[in-house]
Structures are given as structure tokens and as C-alpha cells.
Amino acid sequence: MDMPRNDVRPVDLDVYSTPKHLEHASEQARARSYQDFLIVDVDSHHYENEHYSEVFQYIESPVIRREAMEGASRRTGILNTQVGYQNTGGRIHRQKFRGKEKPKAGKHADIMLTLDWMDAMGVDYTCLFPTPMLFLGLHPQVEIETAMCRAYNAWLCERILANEPRIVSMLYLPFNDPEAAYRTVKDFGEKKGVVGFMVTSPRYKPVHDNAYIKTYALLEEMGKPISFHAAYSWDDRALQMTNRFISVHALGFMWFNMIHMTNWVINGLPVRFPKLKVMWIESGLTWASGLMQRLDHSYMMRTSDAPALKEKPSHYMQQMYFSSQPMEMPDDKSVLEATFKMIKAETQLVWSSDYPHWDFDLPSTIYDLPFLKEQAKRNILGANAARLFGLNTKPVKKIP
Amino acid sequence: MAEWFVAKASEFADGDRRIVNAGRREIGVFHNSGAYYAYSNTCLHQGGPACEGMMINNVVDVFAADRTYQGQTYGDEMHFVCPWHGYEYDIKTGECVGDRKLKLRKFEVVKRGEDIFVVA
């Protein structure tokens, strides 16, 4: 029996392309008419390490620049790494096979690859973040974090953001050096595509230190949000007790943000900076609703420990923004609905994909929720982020 | 229900698989250890191409008689893995191994002479 060639196909694992990998996502985008409304992804990634030869050129110190470039071809270099078998033994194909993909010609390879997955999913704008640099806050040399941060930010602004209006970013803040963090906001805050600044959460500097106050004041004055992007650290004393990636990831991505959030609220930063917009990225949602209850409960018995607060801790947390991914999906959806209610999701939740990382979410994780009305879906998928980042609300994507 | 051509048996080696567009359905057909299996190619998680990922045996924690942990090895159960996020399915049943209440829709596979068909 002869059949049209496209009706039966083998599975060829040697052939990989982003549009092909995400064909089912494009089907979802067409079926749900994503073309008709704005979708903004507040947390996606690229692999900046694949462009270190370009990034290192932007390191301001000639000594560190030389060390970086000399080390690039060696087994060890100036940058720290982190244990983590994120692709689950090769089960996550885009991580295993992405090296086979040839980006389309045109703009920078990372622009072309990013636009490919954005269109495939139905995303209009994305806030792009690095990948290995999420662990840079754990580098033992503060000056390396600062040097690399400034080089990456300059490279990103010049090579990526300046050349593609659909890609924006909240730039890396070198938080271990408070003065450098302040200078970073000053120097990069008005660059094209810079919609805020991001602190990588795994680190050991308390957010309420007076050294950061002038940076928060500057961000508030500029109207630029500050975000805390979660990650894990298997070197953390407590997390060292875990023995599987599932454990260190599940706990680690909440752990540091729970600490920073607690310090942020209990030390009255929301009271001192009432107009500063704060976003918490990639910790899922359950940590936030749980911490609200936990802090509120303790606060009622220990108001003297948090005298700056005029309301319960949850009041301030409900004014912050939360990225959705990796959104927990309990079997009982009423649990998720309660979480949405606690964080005031209709105005404060912003969808994120985390693509291309192993646990990415599609827009359908929000769009298909049975308890949301159409306007709430559209707020979470795009309108809330557009308001926060000052983006045009007209859809510009091209779903294949 | 219609029968959709998958492959000639002689061209469908053991360990191989095909993706069949059967009308509006996409079905993954596996030839594994002498048997044929067919399941919906839409992952129950976020809709990824469930039948197009890695095929790998189940991982097993090894515990000694005294219940101490002795390491890990591979078991005898063959899984296919959704390449988007790693949801694993038992090839014999289509059950999602993380929650066996969840099952991919299963389709009958028939052989007529030299030709393999999936019924959908």
C-alpha cells in the first residue's frame, strides 16, 4: 500500500531543530488563537557560555580579560561551575541535541534561536537571562563576578538587545559588590531593551544590608523593577545533605528566594520603597503562599521583630510580582486556585517559560486552567508583564 | 475506525518506531521485543511528542536484604520518554510511570500479510 510520505515518518534523533522540536507547541498556539493577544515570557534563557569568546572581549580589566581568554580553552578557567545533571541522562532532547542545530542566517545566532522558539510557542516578547551565570553569585572572587557581569551586560546590550526589539532583559546585578551594583544600574539602566535588573538568588549577602539602599532608591526612582532569579547551590551547607538532583533542585530553587523574601519583608523594605517593583523568578508558586501564611502567623506574635511593617507580611508580598514557572500542578486544582488567590494572580502573576531549560512551561499551563476567565489568562500571559516592563501590547509574533 | 498503514514488517525492525498521522491524530507505533504497541503521541503533561524521545529501561534503587541502599541499576521494564520534560511511559501499557493512573490512549496494531496497520 502506498501512502503519502508525510503520513508516516521514522523518529530520527540525529535531526534536531527548534521549530520541529516545538511543533506540538505551535499546534497549541494555533488552536488557542494566541495570535490574537499578547504573550510575554518574563524568564527565558540562552547559553552565554557558547559566546564567551565574544563576551570576554568586553571585560574591562586587561588582566582579568587575559585570564578569561587564556582559560577559555583549558579544563579550568576563571568562572565557577555547579554540579547538576539537568538533562536527566539525555532524556531532555533539546539539551542533548541542540548542538546539531544550525541557526538561521541573519542576526546573532542567539537572536535567531530565541525568535524560533518564541514564534513556535506564540510568544511576542521575552526577557532573556543567562544560564551558567546564574551561579556567578557564588564565585569566591567578588571582582570576577563584577567584571563578568559588566562584560556580559555590555555584550548583551550591544549584540542582542540593540538588535532585536522582541528580546528584553533584566540585567545581572553584581550584588556581592554593592557599589558595583549601583554603578551597573547607573551605567546600563537606560540602554535599549533593559527593563529592570536581576539578582541571582544563590548567594550569601542579605538583601537588607544598608549598602544596597541607594541602589534600591535609584531603581525606584527610575521605575525599573528588581528581580530575584532562583537557582540552587549544591555547595550550600543544608542542601549538601541532598543526594539527587531532584531534591537539590526542588528545594534549592525555593530556598534562597524564601530567605531573600523574608529579609526583604521583615526589614521593612516594602515600606521604605513603596514604589519599587519586586519580582520573584523561577521558584514556582507554592513557596509564596506558604511563606505568606508562615510569616503572618509569626508576625502576629512578634510584631516587635518587624516594627517597620504597617500590615501583615502577606500584604506586602501580594504587591510583588511572581513568575509562574515551574508552576506546580496539584491533582486537586482547587489547591492551585487558592494559591492564585493568595498571590493575587490576576494582577501579580506573570507567565514564564524558562525555555530552553529542562522544566520549561508552555503558555497552555495558564491558558488551560479551568478556574481562570479569559481576561485573567491574558493578564497573566502578557498584560501584567507589559504593564511592568512598559511593552507595546500589540501582538507581533509569527506562529508557524 | 480505520486502518492506517504503518510500515512493511520487513522494513520495521525490532527496536524501531514510526509516527503515523491518522487523520487528526498523531500516533507513535513501536516495535519492541517482538511486539507492536501504538499510543497517542501527545504527552499527558504539556502535550509534547511523547513517543519521539529516548527509549530506556527503568532505573531501580537496589536495596539489600537488610534494607540498606546499595546503589542503582537498570531494570527490565522498557520506557519511552517525552523529549520535552522527561515524562516516562511503560511501553507495554502506556502508563505514565510517575502516576500509573495516567495512561496514553492505546491503539490496536494489526498485521495483514507483510503490512502493519494501526487502527484509529
Output the CATH topology of chain A: TIM Barrel
Q: Summarize the main sheet of chain A.
A: 8 strands, parallel
Low-confidence stretches of chain A: 1-6
Mean pLDDT of chain A: 96
Count of individual domains of chain B? 1
Structural class of chain B: mainly beta
User: Proportion of β residues of chain B?
Assistant: over 45%
CATH level 4 superfamily of chain A: Metal-dependent hydrolases
Tell me, rounded to a whole number, the average pLDDT of chain B. Answer: 97
> What fraction of residues of chain A sit in β-strands?
5-15%
Under CATH, the homologous superfamily of chain B reads Rieske [2Fe-2S] iron-sulphur domain
- What is the helix/strand order of chain A? EHHEHHHHEHEHEHEHHEHHEHHEHH
- The helix fraction of chain B, in percent, is under 10%
CATH hierarchy class name of chain B: Mainly Beta
Low-pLDDT segments, ≥5 res of chain B: none
- Cα end-to-end separation of chain B: 5 Å
